[in-house]
Amino acid sequence: MKKIIYLLALILPTQILADWEVNMPRGVTPTSEIAYDIHMLMFWITVVIGILVFGAMIYSIIYHRKSVGYQPAKFHESTKVEIIWTVIPFLILVVCAIPATKALIMMEDTSDAGITLKVTGYQWMWEYEYLEDGVNFFSKIDNKSNNARRLNSGKDVNNVENYLRNVDNEVVLPTDTKVRLLLTASDVIHAWWVPELGGKKDAIPGYVNEMWIKIKEPGVYRGACAELCGKDHGFMPIVVRAVPKLEYDKWVSLKKDNRVAESQSQNIGR
After folding, report:
1. Residue ranges in the chain assigned as alpha helix (H)
2. Per-residue pLDDT reduced to its tens digit, 173-211
3. pTM score, two decimals?
4. What is the CATH number of domain 2-66+75-107?
């Protein structure tokens, strides 16, 4: 059965592999797409090399074996062969390095961003600050998942929607807008990772990392902390909701109104 699965993995189209979640997702940002394209380039180069190397080995094993009377060639060195097996790998590395270098330069260019979002990792939650819009909030695992994960909770986790992958406050971002992310942490090292957005960066105490995303399609994209950060590391989900710019502006306005209302309520209580 394993041999059949391995064979299918080689011959099935890339899209089918992606549907099976065997392959990495292409994502919905320029950085995720270029990372996927480079990944597939490396994959097919490796497949071709594997076919050539193992093909030569199998051919030699079958037709050059001692039992059929084959006599091995006797030589100590071949300058021509050495040049060939030096030049070919060098050219392959050049073919790989050119798109990889362009991708790295593009990924590190956070200029001309329309929105700056500061992300701070805590044990075990995230804080988000929209620096231009004056909106900030904490985001942690939702109550349903948090209650169901408890030992002897009596709750069937199969009945909890998006178990361990949902949060109480989603990050909302506009589509077709370059968003600059500033990442740091308040206690230990965390890592902000959403596979379909092509982003994974460490959030380090006392240091600010940066990255950018530009989401092309509306939708909900889920991720998690990708750096072991303590006992509840596995319970730090990330949920990003991408919406059209007009809807995003309405969301920001609503967040501001809610903050003003909360502030007024606190003042009255005093």
Report:
1. 2-11, 14-19, 30-63, 79-107, 143-148, 245-269
2. 999 999 999 999 999 999 999 999 987 899 999 999 999
3. 0.80
4. 1.10.287
